[in-house]
């Protein structure tokens, strides 16, 4: 949890048809995750750290398992 009370991390989100996928999320309030990256297919996004309630870093995976660094800038 960040000093502002916002939580940034990775959650397992359900996939239509069954299963789950890792997804970078930001919770401003309990029970209401905000996705940080639009999911395309079964790609996953993972948060590795957060500098503030507005900035998080991590990576996206591609269909071949490659990891690509990303920085998310989140609005309030």
Q: Structural class of the helices, strands and pairings?
A: mainly beta
The number of helical runs is: 0
> Beta fraction of the residues?
over 45%
Extended strand count = 6
As residue ranges, the low-confidence spans are none
**Largest sheet strand order:** 1-2-3
Q: Would you list the SSEs in sequence order as H and E?
A: EEEEEE
> pLDDT average, as an integer?
81
CA-atom Rg in angstroms: 12 Å
The biggest beta sheet, please? 3 strands, antiparallel
Distance between the termini: 15 Å
Shape: globular
Question: What's the helical proportion of residues?
Answer: under 10%
Explained architecture:
About 0% of the residues lie in helices and about 55% in strands. With about 80 residues, it is mainly beta. The strands form two sheets. The chain has a three-stranded antiparallel beta sheet, with no helix packed on it. A three-stranded antiparallel beta sheet has the order 4-5-6, with no helix packed on it. A hairpin with a 5-residue loop joins strand 5 and strand 6. About 15% of the residues are buried.
